[in-house]
Amino acid sequence: MKNSRILIIDDDPDVLTAVRLLLKQQVDKVITEHNPEQIPSILAKETPDLVLLDMNFKSTLNTGNEGLYWLSRIKAIKPDLPVVMITAYGAIDLAVTSLKQGAADFVVKPWQNEQLIGVITGLLSKKDRKRATNPAKSMDSEFIGQSEVVLDLLYKVNKIAPTDANILVLGENGTGKDLIATAIHKQSARSDRPFIKVDVGALTETLFESELFGHKKGAFTDAREDRVGRFEAANGGTLFLDEIGNISLQQQAKLLSVLQNRQVIPLGSNTPIPIDIRLVCATNVPLADLANENRFRKDLIYRINTVDLQVPPLRERGDDILRIARYFLQKYAEKYRKAIVDFDQGAAQKLLRYHYPGNVRELQYSIERAVIMADGEILGAEDLIFSAIEQTSQSQSVQRQLPEEHNLVELERITIANVVEKHGGNISKAAKELGITRTALYRRLSKYDL
Ligand SMILES: Nc1ncnc2c1ncn2[C@@H]1O[C@H](COP(=O)(O)OP(=O)(O)OP(=O)(O)O)[C@@H](O)[C@H]1O
Questions:
Q1: Which CATH architecture has domain 148-310?
Q2: What is the value of pTM for the model shown?
Q3: Does domain 391-447 have CATH number 1.10.10?
Q4: Are 148-310 and 314-386 in the same CATH fold?
Q5: Distance between CA atoms of 265 and 272, rounded to whole angstroms?
Q6: Ligand 1 pocket residue status of 27, Cβ below 6 Å
Q7: Model confidence pLDDT, tens digit, residues 269-317
Q8: Which residues pair with 105 in a beta bridge?
Q9: Could you tell me if the CB of 144 is within 6 A of ligand 1?
Q10: Does the model's ipTM exceed the 0.90 cut?
Q11: Handedness of CA 65, 66, 67, 70 (dihedral sign)
Q12: Which residues form the signal peptide (predicted)?
């Protein structure tokens, strides 16, 4: 109760004052509002844990019952937010209808203070219990999802994370492998030790060893001082090797030897350093392709893959698409200070029908772009534009001509588009060819609206 925020909407100022006085000592914040029209913008700014909503506004809208109408709006914006209806004596039928439409409970005016407090505490503790048992919410890295496939994945994460097993996280680009790797670390016995991530797919042959194993000053021309390798930096904690499927056979041999011997020898040194790490690897290459002898050593697969976790593509997650879309909508509406609160029917249909070759990352960028561009409170289908880059990676692509004039910005834009197309949308390979990190490439894709 003490940390909770309560929002109360009633057009009777006496009710607002009475509730404020009653609850102000008991909860963290009481937000009062007499005009229900303000609900969407309040929900865009505030994060209440519970709403008290009048059932009988003196209606200006012709919606049958305005209380029910605003209940449905709140539920559309925040489906999990408990709403308690405040109803007049004699309107019990309506109150029951509200329960069927998603209200958590109702209280009858005038109420007994203890009764109101009882209803609120009951609902808040129920919410806490739900949060504690929902694996999606117990990961504070917020892997949003309630679909069968995601709950199944999160169940496995919860089970495997506390063990020290090496884990291989599989899944298409942008499905959330990074989030899963972070969650594994946070739920492990090593959670208070370092979590070190290395994008091994983007490392050149020369950088690979010095980045992972470290080097001594003078070990090679550019080694001006000693450098601690990422294995050593992760000692006692978790080492996350991303894009493991893209490393060369030579790099695989070096990695295997370190994992077998459980020690690293920095370049230019003779002294082995013992390492104690939990290894989590990720790749967008399907396991069957990885297991192809020419591409990846089987013995290394067995080493890194005590257990594998498959992160499903977004298009297989059903309504999670809308849950994640709403999460990003709220996030970016806050970031860009927009009063956008929801999607209309058409937008929701468009979101559900699209196939998301770029998965959650593509959804994220589309929502961010829509929030920046849109003006109203509700996003429509026309506000949602999916990335041209992802579309072209699916189809045959045509290389863009480099322009005659030598404008560097334009050259960069076209080069990036060409290289990404050349690699069929594979960001890691494109970043490697361009000589920049994947994060830098994503930033540029967003900058150029590709
Ligand atoms: N279920 C989810 N809920 C909320 N955000 C998510 C979810 N899954 C992914 N994201 C977000 O989507 C973006 C891409 O996720 P992430 O980087 O983890 O994907 P990835 O599979 O590691 O991608 P890549 O294969 O390109 O490395 C991130 O901003 C991440 O926070």
A1: 3-Layer(aba) Sandwich (3.40)
A2: 0.63
A3: yes
A4: no
A5: 5
A6: no
A7: 889 999 999 999 999 999 888 887 678 898 999 999 989 999 999 999 9
A8: 84
A9: yes
A10: yes
A11: positive
A12: none
